């Protein structure tokens, strides 16, 4: 049994005027933190809840922890997901999930795409602009998709993200740079089916059943993108197909692409990879989430795990087990865990 510090960043006050309406969308609610703590305690671990805020370092110094269950999305800054892991690394405290470099890298979508391209993993062609005046799309084909370069949880993504011509592109780049005060990523639109793949483990990771986003179920006229509106308004099972109905070859190709991505980015313990088919039917990686949301019954990652036969308690303890094994701390694995993940 281990002394586990569960670290998180809670959703705060609603956004103020001038701030993006979806500010803080990736942060956790108290119920998710409580569910993670409950799952760990069910396996006999001692749990300390530590908010990953400005005083976190002092709390880490004054408590003896064996390991941290890291859910911190970070408070501010372009490398925010790596702040708490950096402190943990400095203090020599092991933690679940990916390391500092991977967390900082995947928050930068353009840089992530460069690493994927180096490994020959398909990802749409792209450019990055800090203002509408910089736009130059030579070599890219419309329609183009526009999103903030350093966000997650579909922040900034609406039906206007798909731009069919230059006028719309300029408007969308203006909107996003003003609202999110960061560069925007402009990439070729992937017109095909969309999937998300959940991975758990290190040497021989488990891949949960693949989930397809069911755009056929959304109201007519709504853009076929997995927008903020989709994630908040359409969370019922009919909007998702899991396991996705897939030909064996395509299923194998999606899994292989997701796993190659996981390895190329040095992901650890868990991650979710989002893919979409291009016009030739080839799975392309849109982005990687090394800190996938863990809201029980709501977030994609625990939903995928459940379809694979993992209860929420199994999943949370499975993540911890991966991190304990990776750090040669098997003796702290809780009871009565029966699954073994390499
Ligand atoms: N190049 C693209 N072509 C078509 N659709 C896209 C493209 N890029 C993103 N999308 C759509 O926008 C959605 C959100 O994009 P993406 O996954 O990059 O953002 P995110 O905010 O990081 O998501 P998450 O909530 O998974 O963190 C995708 O699920 C997809 O529906
Ligand atoms: Mg995504």
Could you characterize the architecture of this molecule?
- The chain has 342 residues and is α+β, with helices and mostly antiparallel strands.
- It folds into 3 domains: 3-97, Rossmann fold (3-Layer(aba) Sandwich); 125-188, Dna Ligase, domain 1, CATH 3.30.1490; 194-332, D-amino Acid Aminotransferase, Chain A, domain 1.
- The chain contains 10 helices and 13 strands.
- It has helices spanning 30-42, 56-62, 83-91, 100-106, 109-118, 166-180, 228-233, 248-264, 300-307, 312-326; strands at 3-8, 46-51, 67-70, 126-129, 144-148, 162-163, 184-188, 194-200, 206-207, 211-213, 240-241, 270-277, 283-289.
- Strands 8, 9, 10, 11, 12 and 13 form a 6-stranded antiparallel β-sheet that branches. The chain has a 4-stranded antiparallel β-sheet with strand order 4-7-5-6, covered by helices on one side.
- Strand 1, helix 1 (30-42) and strand 2 form a beta-alpha-beta unit.
- The longest helix has 17 residues, at 248-264.
- It binds adenosine-5'-triphosphate and magnesium ion (MG).
- The site of adenosine-5'-triphosphate (ATP) has 20 residues, from strand 5, strand 12 and strand 13.
Short overview:
With 342 residues, the chain is an alpha+beta fold.
Main sheet attributes: strand count, strand direction, barrel closure: 6 strands, antiparallel
In which range does the helix fraction lie? 25-40%
Name the ligand types: adenosine-5'-triphosphate, magnesium ion
Query: Any idea what the CATH superfamily of the largest domain is called?
Result: ATP-grasp fold, B domain
Beta-strand portion reads: 15-25%
């Amino acid at each position: 049994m281990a002394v586990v510090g569960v670290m998180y960043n809670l959703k705060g006050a609603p956004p103020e005027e001038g701030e993006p309406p979806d500010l803080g969308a990736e942060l956790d609610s108290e119920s998710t933190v409580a569910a993670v703590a409950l799952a760990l305690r069910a396996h006999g671990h001692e749990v300390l809840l530590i908010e990953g805020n400005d005083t976190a370092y002092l709390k880490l110094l004054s408590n003896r922890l064996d390991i941290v269950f890291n859910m911190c999305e970070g408070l501010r800054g372009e490398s925010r997901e790596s702040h708490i892991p950096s402190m943990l690394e400095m203090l020599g405290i092991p933690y679940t999930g990916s390391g500092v470099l991977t967390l900082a890298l995947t928050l930068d979508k353009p840089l992530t795409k460069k690493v994927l391209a180096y490994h020959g993993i398909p990802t749409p062609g792209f450019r990055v602009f800090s203002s509408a005046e910089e736009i130059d799309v030579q070599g890219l084909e419309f329609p183009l998709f526009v999103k903030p370069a350093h966000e997650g949880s579909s922040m900034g993504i609406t039906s206007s993200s798909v731009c069919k011509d230059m006028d719309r592109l300029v408007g969308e780049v203006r909107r996003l740079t003003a609202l999110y005060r960061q560069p925007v990523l402009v990439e070729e639109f992937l017109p095909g089916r969309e999937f998300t793949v959940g991975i758990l483990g290190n040497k021989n990771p488990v891949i949960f059943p693949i989930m397809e986003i069911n755009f056929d179920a959304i109201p007519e006229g709504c853009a076929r993108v997995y927008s903020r509106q989709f994630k908040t308004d359409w969370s019922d099972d009919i909007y998702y197909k899991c396991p996705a109905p897939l030909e064996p070859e395509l299923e194998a190709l999606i899994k292989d692409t997701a796993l190659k991505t996981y390895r190329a980015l040095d992901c650890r313990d868990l991650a979710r990879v989002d893919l979409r088919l291009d016009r030739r039917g080839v799975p392309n990686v849109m982005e990687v989430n090394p800190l996938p949301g863990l809201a029980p019954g709501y977030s994609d990652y625990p939903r995928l795990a459940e379809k694979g036969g993992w209860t929420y308690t199994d999943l949370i303890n499975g993540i911890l087990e991966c991190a304990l094994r990776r750090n040669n701390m098997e003796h702290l694995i809780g009871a009565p865990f029966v699954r073994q993940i390499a």
